[in-house]
Specification:
The structure is a single chain. The protein is mainly α. The chain is built from 15 helices and nine strands. It has helices at 3-19, 26-40, 53-64, 90-101, 106-111, 113-129, 163-169, 171-188, 190-196, 202-207, 214-225, 264-270, 277-300, 307-323, 341-345, and strands at 49-52, 137-138, 141-142, 156-159, 241-244, 259-262, 274-275, 327-331, 334-337. Helix 1 (3-19) packs parallel to helix 8, helix 2 runs antiparallel to helix 8 and helix 3 crosses helix 6 (113-129). The longest helix has 24 residues, at 277-300. The model has no long low-confidence stretch (mean pLDDT 92). It binds zinc ion (ZN). Zinc ion binds at residues 229, 231-232, 234, 262-263, 266. Zinc ion binds next to loops.
């Protein structure tokens, strides 16, 4: 991929965000879904990626799921943030209903296959009707640099060759741009302003993870992995920390198999670095050997997990790391430049 086409891609994304028309937040969700699905999917030999609308719908459900609860109790309002000027975005009403039915647990909703698929279909039709063909209209003109309406077939779009690779290269950058604008959009809806107030952590609410939510993962991991620290293999006497093996800052998602238990000191030492390929080897072994057992534990506790996606995300993170000359964390304050050893682990 040439530097010139990469720059052009980023310019196009920036123009789209600067000049596109954003009435609802759907277009931000769609952009984020394009970036995420590029990481989680595998492009064909020509570099194009086919993505069914159902996959977008599932991403929309994931993104909006935490956003449909009240931001905070507010007099004279339900406290739920509007994602649209005028009427509340339709997807949110749909999800609010689903949240109530399943006590806020998305994993439980997924397990009700019939209802889940019904919701996915409804959301997919909103995606098709609302942001899909509007996203790339800038200043009234269509500029189809991501996917083309003419290629739409069997309920799936095809990304223009090279696009998914650009999204993989610039995932973090695109995500920050998109979320920054999404946040601004929600903040500027007039009826939201009295709900949000001055000092609230809106970003944490919209895109963050509740620390409390990690407690459930801790219990399942303890059962399967035992009481030793994943990284140094010594016993943990304090409360073990639940570490995102591929860090949250690299790829903000909570999927069960990505977690390991660690000493607070080991977790702090690793911070947002990639772990050394030896750690990666053990993470991979743990998931290949105990993946099914972990999955049933996560299911029983209604916690999200997806082994295939977890591996796809790890593969992407290490490929990106190698390309950008990342350092990996071994132990304490020891770091090493990432070499190609990770490839044999994640084949
Ligand atoms: Zn440790």
């Amino acid at each position: 991929m040439s530097a010139a086409t990469e720059v052009q891609f980023l310019r196009n994304i920036q123009r789209l965000l600067d000049e596109g028309d954003f009435v609802a937040t759907y277009k931000f969700a769609l952009l984020q879904a394009l970036a995420d699905l590029s990481v989680e999917g595998a492009p064909d030999s020509e570099g194009s990626l086919v993505v069914p609308l159902d996959r977008f719908a599932e991403k929309f459900i994931e993104y909006y799921w935490p956003q449909v609860v009240p931001f905070r109790p507010t007099s004279g309002s339900d406290g739920i943030l509007q994602q649209n000027t005028g009427q509340q975005a339709a997807i949110l009403k749909e999800l609010l209903q689903l949240r109530v039915t399943f006590g806020g647990k998305i994993q439980l909703a997924r397990q009700d296959v019939r209802l889940w698929q019904q919701t996915v279909r409804k959301v997919a039709s909103v995606v098709r009707e609302m942001p899909l063909w509007k996203l790339q209209v800038v200043a009234g003109k269509p500029e189809e640099f991501l996917y083309r309406q003419a290629d739409f077939k069997n309920g799936a779009i095809t990304l223009v060759p090279g696009v998914s690779s650009h999204f993989r290269s610039f995932h973090g950058l695109v995500l920050r741009l998109v979320r920054g604008r999404w946040l601004e959009r929600v903040r500027t809806v007039k009826s939201n302003q009295s709900i949000i107030g001055a000092e609230a952590d809106l970003e944490g609410f919209l895109f963050g993870t509740g620390r409390k939510a990690l407690d459930g993962f801790r219990d399942v991991l303890r059962e399967v992995d035992g009481l030793n620290c994943f990284y140094c293999d010594r016993q943990i006497n304090a409360v073990p920390e639940v570490d995102h093996f591929i860090s949250w800052s690299r790829y903000p998602i909570d999927l069960g198999h990505n977690f390991v238990l660690a000493h607070p000191a080991c977790n702090n030492g690793k911070r947002d670095f990639l772990a050394d390929p030896r750690h990666l080897q053990r993470w991979s072994d743990r998931n290949r050997q105990a993946g099914t057992m972990l999955a049933s534990g996560f299911d029983a506790a209604a916690l999200p997990h997806d082994l295939i996606r977890s591996f796809a995300i790890a593969r992407w993170a290490y490929a990106q790391g190698e390309e950008t000359g990342a350092h990996t964390w071994m132990a304490g304050d020891q770091f090493l430049k990432l070499d190609e050893r990770w490839r044999t682990v994640l084949q």
